[in-house]
Amino acid sequence: SQTIHQWPATLVQPVGSPLSLECTVEGTSNPNLYWYRQAAGRGLQLLFYSVGIGQISSEVPQNLSASRPQDRQFILSSKKLLLSDSGFYLCAWTQGGTGYFEAFFGQGTRLTVV
Amino acid sequence: AQSVTQPDIHITVSEGASLELRCNYSYGATPYLFWYVQSPGQGLQLLLKYFSGDTLVQGIKGFEAEFKRSQSSFNLRKPSVHWSDAAEYFCAVQSYNTDKLIFGTGTRLQVFP
């Protein structure tokens, strides 16, 4: 069966420090991968999505970047964190290919920038 | 541009009452449409989905949604709400061209006994 791993669960980082959040999917190949930020009253804001290795679509201009170095690995990064980067980050995957498929989410990372 | 609007941030209903959560989307063609539910402290669970065919879609937990192309809407309904339905509900739209998947801002449902 397919599983999604996202880590760390919580993170406290000082302003100006780098960030790396990792997400991996098991049990499937060529998934679509997504990074969202969830904030109260703002729902799930799509940050990045990827339909294949090295293919990243950025949705919100900001201090973050994403990479997909392997088929089932999706990384969210920042070179210098801002206070406004604090939030709850969710990784998700859907089956790739033609059709519409359920999205499965990781447990999320609570990031606090201090 | 692809977008999803959930006009109601917070809805309160009595247990046993009917429920309708609104969702409007903007997309060049018929997108893939979804409703998800997130209970407190839990992840998101798919309630139902739609792309084509019968415009009334049945989902889990007694929920249904109706697609109305003329109104660009995909409203979620339940005839009789249970206290366990208290949660946050998200409408989502996925492009069949790009697989871009976006969510609305969510509607928080509160159920009174």
Word description of this protein:
The complex is a heterodimer of chains A (114) and B (113). Helices cover 0% and strands 58% of the residues of chain A. In chain A, the strands form two sheets. In chain A, strands 2, 4, 5, 6, 9, 10 and 11 form a seven-stranded mixed beta sheet that branches. Chain A contains no helices and eleven strands. Chain A has 114 residues and is mainly β. In chain B, the strands form three sheets. In chain B, strands 2, 5, 6, 10, 11 and 12 form a six-stranded mixed beta sheet that branches. The relative contact order of chain B is 0.33. The termini of chain B are far apart. In chain B, 0% of the residues lie in helices and 52% in strands. The model of chain B has no long low-confidence stretch (mean pLDDT 93). Chain B is built from no helices and twelve strands. Chain B has 113 residues and is mostly beta strands. The chains are: A mainly beta (114), B mainly beta (113).
Summarize the structure.
The complex is a heterodimer of chains A (114) and B (113). Chain A is mainly β and 114 residues long.
List the helices and strands and how they pair.
The complex is a heterodimer of chains A (114) and B (113).
Chain A (H helix, E strand, L loop, with lengths): L2 E5 L2 E4 L5 E8 L5 E8 L3 E10 L2 E4 L6 E6 L2 E6 L8 E8 L9 E2 L3 E5 L1
Parallel strand pairs in A: 2-11
Antiparallel strand pairs in A: 1-3, 3-8, 4-5, 4-9, 5-6, 7-8, 9-10, 9-11
Chain B lengths: L2 E3 L4 E5 L4 E3 L2 E3 L5 E7 L5 E7 L5 E3 L5 E5 L4 E6 L8 E8 L6 E3 L3 E6 L1
Parallel strand pairs in B: 2-12
Antiparallel strand pairs in B: 1-4, 3-9, 5-6, 5-10, 7-8, 8-9, 10-11, 10-12
What do the pLDDT scores of chain B average to? 93
Extended strand count of chain B:
12
- Helical content of chain B, roughly? under 10%
What global shape of chain A is seen?
A: globular
- Cα Rg of chain B: 13 Å
- The averaged pLDDT of chain A comes out at 92
Number of β-strand runs of chain A: 11
Q: Largest beta sheet of chain A, briefly? A: 7 strands, mixed
Largest sheet of chain B: 6 strands, mixed
Poorly predicted residue ranges of chain B: none
Structural class of chain A: mainly beta
Q: Give the terminus-to-terminus CA distance of chain A.
A: 38 Å
Q: Please report the number of helical segments of chain B.
A: 0
Tally of contiguous helical segments of chain A: 0
Helix percent of chain A reads under 10%
Global morphology of chain B: globular
Question: How much strand content do the residues of chain B show?
Answer: over 45%
Distance between the termini of chain B: 41 Å
Largest Cβ-defined interface: A-B, 22 and 23 residues
Order of helices and strands of chain A: EEEEEEEEEEE
